[in-house]
Amino acid sequence: MIVDTEYGKVNIKGDVVREIVYKAVLESYGTVEMGKQGFFDKIASLWVKDESKGITVEEQEDKLLVNLYLVLEYGLPIKKVAENTQENVYHRIKAMLNYDDVLVNVHISGLKF
């Protein structure tokens, strides 16, 4: 991701954006874990260590597309928790990177008791 400033251009790696998103999700109420929770995903995690933490960040045209795979706490309103997480991630990226065109998609992978 390349950001233009008055002094030149700044190149921000995807890992940095992913870490910003990860911190914002951790601060969101109701999120227990991150990552895909399907059967084959669990089998694959035995052999391969997943560094993405359930977050994918893509730059498409002039947009930043963030996909989150979350496990939520059982008993909480799923829609409200997902909306709060979306807002937290959006505002954190906007504040830290000064980037307005951000799309945040939340995929609920499961519930934890």
Structural key phrases:
single chain; 113 residues; alpha+beta; Alpha-Beta Plaits; four-stranded mixed β-sheet; two-stranded antiparallel sheet; 3 helices; 37% helix
Radius of gyration: 15 Å
Class, according to the CATH hierarchy?
A: Alpha Beta
The appropriate CATH architecture is 2-Layer Sandwich
**Could you list the spans in which at least 5 consecutive residues all have pLDDT below 50?**
none
Task: Give the number of DSSP strands.
Answer: 6
Family: Belongs to the asp23 family.
Organism: Geotoga petraea
Protein name: Asp23/Gls24 family envelope stress response protein
Pfam family, one: Asp23
Structure description:
This protein is of the alpha+beta class. The chain has a single domain, classed as Cation efflux protein, cytoplasmic domain (Alpha-Beta Plaits, 2-Layer Sandwich). 37% of the residues lie in helices and 35% in strands. The protein has helices at 14-26, 39-47, 78-97, and strands spanning 2-5, 8-11, 31-34, 55-60, 63-73, 102-112. Strands 3, 4, 5 and 6 form a four-stranded mixed beta sheet that branches. A two-stranded antiparallel sheet has the order 1-2. Helix 1 packs across helix 3. The longest helix has 20 residues, at 78-97. The radius of gyration is 15 Å and the shape is elongated. The N and C termini lie far apart (38 Å).
